Amino acid sequence: MKRITVLLVIIAGLTLAANAQTRYVGGDISVLQSYDDNNVTYYDQNGSKIDDVLKYMKSEAVGWNAQRVRLFVNPDRKSPNGSTDAQVCQDLDYVVRLCKRIKAEGFALMLDFHYSDTWADPANQWTPAEWLSLTEEQLQTKIYDYTKACLQRLVDEGATPDFIQPGNEISYGMLWGKYGTNDNRCYTNSPEANWTRFINLLKQAVKACREVCPQAKIIIHTERAGQVNVLTSFYTRMTDVDYDIIGLSYYPFWHNSLSTLSTSLNQLAAKFPDKKVQIVETAYYYQWQPDKGKGIDYDFSSTWPVSAEGQAAFTRDLITELNKHPNVEGLFWWYPEENGNGPNDNVSSYWVNRGLWDNNTHRALPALYVLKDFLGDQAHVGTLNTDEDNMPKNIYTIDGKYLGQNTNALPHGIYIIGDKKTVK
């Protein structure tokens, strides 16, 4: 009787919450598996050793509920320009290992397809080496088959993505061809045929996503948050593409001020009111920021000092701004797991110094603990304590329907698991 009473009390308190927008906060933790494989030690902000970083990210102290992982076709650590990058290691086997762990811990999973053997971004969208000889028709078939096969493997392994990005920072198209070519790029003044080619490829990738993961949300990801006209022009061209969410990269040192971001978000809400927005990449330096013009475009160090405290201040201010925009539902830090052990080792060829662990001390930085504030009330999923400490972890819908005890099988929503309200 007591258990039923507890359940009814929780249900009554959650009626309004059930209709609230679910928010997601987390990071692109694509290198974490490599850090773990190399036994790199992580510490919390107080210097206590963290035995399992994923569990710690899920804990009340950090409070994340989502993670992002990238996937290369045949990752080549030696890039086309001759440099070596140990962070380019995410082949399908690697990604399956990491994604299984992410899902087992109860996170929402975002899979980020880099349709390349190396970094795919606005300046680099090079076709995988094995695909270079394909005709345009064959390339459309290949991107469909490849996307479908990768997703099916993840589904079969119990790591079904909740969000899928078919392409990374594809502001100017993707699968341009061999390294250095100017063909097939999609700028504002590019031939219309280039855009048609790009959109046809994108449609094939999305088709595969819908077939294998029909419950997953499709994200189209760009990084023109600092150029509102380019940004809105791009998504206007995406009208005939089947997708759910606008994904943005926003780094202030490349994309300008929070007021610039605000303008972009307002325009997206006005022009594309049916699309939610997620900031799928953001970060700020805590040490050793490059000089303006030599790695960054804008210097905001007078606003947010290049320090641990400055990084946390940026994070708070970013969340404050995002909270003004009801179309924004996600916030992901890029490479939060960076933790030294470099350069010239098996994990990282260089230090980026924008992560959420200090490369020198291996301790967590304050910004790690700030990010959960983006979730608002959702971050404080309350626990209704009883004296039945050993109560089984039975799962119920908020209207009292029993769902068993397998959390991995749950779609997104609000549930009662044991005595806890849980947002999945």
Brief descriptors of the model:
30% helix; disordered N terminus; single chain; four-stranded antiparallel sheet; alpha/beta; eight-stranded parallel beta barrel; globular; 424 residues; 11 helices
Which structural class is indicated by helix and strand composition?
Answer: alpha/beta
The span between the termini is 27 Å
What share of the residues does DSSP label as strand, in percent? 15-25%
Main-sheet strand order equals 1-4-5-6-7-8-9-10
- Would you count the extended β strands for me? 14
Structure description:
The strands form 3 sheets. The chain has an 8-stranded parallel β-barrel. The chain has a 4-stranded antiparallel sheet with strand order 12-11-13-14, with helices on one face. A two-stranded antiparallel ribbon has the order 2-3. Helix 4 links the parallel strand 4 and strand 5 (108-113). The protein is built from 11 helices and 14 strands. With 424 residues, the chain is α/β, with parallel strands linked by helices.
Quick structural summary:
By secondary structure, this protein is α/β, with parallel strands linked by helices.
Structural topology:
Blueprint: H1 2-14, E1 24-28, H2 32-37, E2 42-43, E3 49-50, H3 53-58, E4 66-71, H4 92-104, E5 108-113, H5 136-156, E6 163-166, H6 192-212, E7 217-222, H7 228-237, E8 245-249, H8 252-255, H9 258-271, E9 276-282, H10 308-322, E10 328-334, H11 366-370, E11 395-397, E12 402-404, E13 414-417, E14 420-423
Parallel strand pairs: 1-4, 1-10, 4-5, 5-6, 6-7, 7-8, 8-9, 9-10
Antiparallel strand pairs: 2-3, 11-12, 11-13, 13-14
Helix pairs in contact: 5-6, 7-9
